[in-house]
Fold:
Amino acid sequence: MQISSRFTIALHIFTCVDTFKDEYKITSDFLAGSINTNPVIIRKILTQLKNAGLITVARGTGGIIPTRDLKDITFYDVYEAIEPVENGDLFNFHSNPNPQCPVGRNIHNLLDDKLKNIQLAMENEMKKYTIDNLRTEMLEILEKEKI
Structure:
């Protein structure tokens, strides 16, 4: 299991938008330059963020605006927008273990609750961090770089 790079790219997008909003026209090309990826990938992620109601995008003008205060957008919100899990389950469990095998017929009983608890722990941890945390930390880093 691995969360794709689209999740961290989305966090990068939010950080760029906030950091450069007063200095540059924020376009998919601009973001692609910072992220070092193809603008098509950026546009796809922007569409996912927009469809999730996390941003608005003004095509052509480079207007990307978060729809909520950054302290109200969690990493979990971004994760849900970018990495939707199938049937709400992070772990894709093989569906037809052999019922004739003692392990096969009991594997779900052994793992289902544990895997759900692991998923909930990850999701709850993601809910602790916000885009505003990234803004604050980025400002601190930039201030230190000036010294």
Remarks:
- The two ends are 41 Å apart (CA to CA).
- The longest strand covers residues 55-58.
- The mean pLDDT is 92.
- Residues 28 and 108 are 44 Å apart (CA to CA).
